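2024-03-11 09:14:02 DEBUG pipeline.ingest accepted 1 chain
2024-03-11 09:14:02 DEBUG pipeline.ingest length=126
2024-03-11 09:14:03 DEBUG pipeline.predict start
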Amino acid sequence: QVQLVESGGGLVQTGGSLRLSCAASGRSFGGYDMGWFRQAPGREREPVAAHRWRGGNTYYADSVKDRFVISRDNAKNTVYLQMNSLKPEDTAVYYCAARSEGILSTIFSSTSWQYWGQGTQVTVSS
């Protein structure tokens, strides 16, 4: 089992920045892909970014590309999401997710992720 705890959410103005953190415990961090998803009221959960264990490559949804950066610190068992140039449409609950190293084609499919955090609210005011 892997336990995930997010932190760093809050209220920020349009154009501002936030950094989300996700601390993992329960198993070695190694060998797990890590990802961030978000869910806005009335909408389905959508992928934001992912960091693949094999090769360390990162992947982003088009809506956040060039604004968000996912990174991980394996020594601290923590994954981060640096969010810059925030927009009101980024308002959502952000969830951290982990999965045993999986195939690339499913990295943005929420059903392929095994472990989820409780979520942290991000609100961007206009």
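2024-03-11 09:14:41 DEBUG pipeline.report The radius of gyration is 13 Å.
2024-03-11 09:14:41 DEBUG pipeline.predict end
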